[in-house]
Design goal:
It comes from marine sediment metagenome. GO terms for molecular function: 4 iron, 4 sulfur cluster binding; metal ion binding; oxidoreductase activity. The chain is of the alpha/beta class and about 180 residues long. It is about 15% helix and about 25% strand. It has helices at about 15-30, 60-70, 165-170; strands spanning about 10-15, 35, 50, 55-60, 75-80, 80-90, 95-100, 125, 135, 140, 150. The strands form five sheets. Strands 1-2-5 form a three-stranded parallel sheet, covered by helices on one side. A two-stranded antiparallel ribbon has the order 3-4. The N and C termini lie far apart (about 45 Å). About 25% of the residues are buried.
Length: about 180
């Protein structure tokens, strides 16, 4: 029997409240954590609710301290818009293949000013708010989203439908919109 090396890095799939809490606990015990989330934000389903049972606490207020801790933790590598494609190996020695989708907004350059929203000519129902409000093709899914950086909905953005629209890019004075991002 041959013994394979164990690697201390940990992969947590899903950045809902449970995934974030697990990542923080693992990080506090000295582990390097890679937190993978398929959506563009953390908080999961809980962040969609206005209030959470049993004490009817504001969900954003409940999640905000945990998200702040996540944001400041140097041992946690947060990967949003990312999905696990394949897992190989055995206990303590896995190789994981992931696919990260483009946000088309440079997270380093964007300051979250929302100047790119208004000039976008596309308006559609906001799925996050169950269609009760509208959003643009460039948007932040919800208040308190982490990371608080917009993303471009390629399914509805005119640029990705072959039209010559650069409205959001021209409105961004920080050059954060990058249609070539992979």
């Amino acid at each position: 029997m041959t013994e394979k090396g164990n690697y201390p890095d940990v992969l947590v799939i899903g950045a809902g409240i449970t995934g974030v809490e697990a990542s923080l606990l693992l990080s506090n015990s000295g582990r390097k954590v890679h937190l993978v989330e398929k959506t563009s934000y953390t908080g999961g389903t809980v962040i969609k609710f206005e209030e959470v049972f049993s004490n009817m606490e504001c969900s954003t207020c409940m999640v905000a301290p945990i998200q702040q801790e996540l944001l400041q933790d140097k041992n946690i590598n947060l990967l949003t818009l990312t999905e696990v494609e394949d897992v190989k190996g055995s206990s303590g020695n896995f190789t994981v293949k992931i696919h990260k989708k483009a946000r088309y907004v440079d997270m380093q350059n964007c300051i979250g000013c929302d100047a790119c929203f208004e000039p976008c000519p596309v308006s559609l129902k906001n799925e996050f708010e169950e269609g009760l409000s509208e959003r643009k093709a460039i948007y932040v899914p919800c208040a308190g989203a982490l990371p608080n950086v917009p993303m471009i909905d390629t399914e509805h953005c005119l640029r990705f439908k072959g039209k010559d629209c650069k409205a959001c890019q021209e409105a961004c004075m920080f050059e954060a919109i990058d249609f070539k991002q992979k």
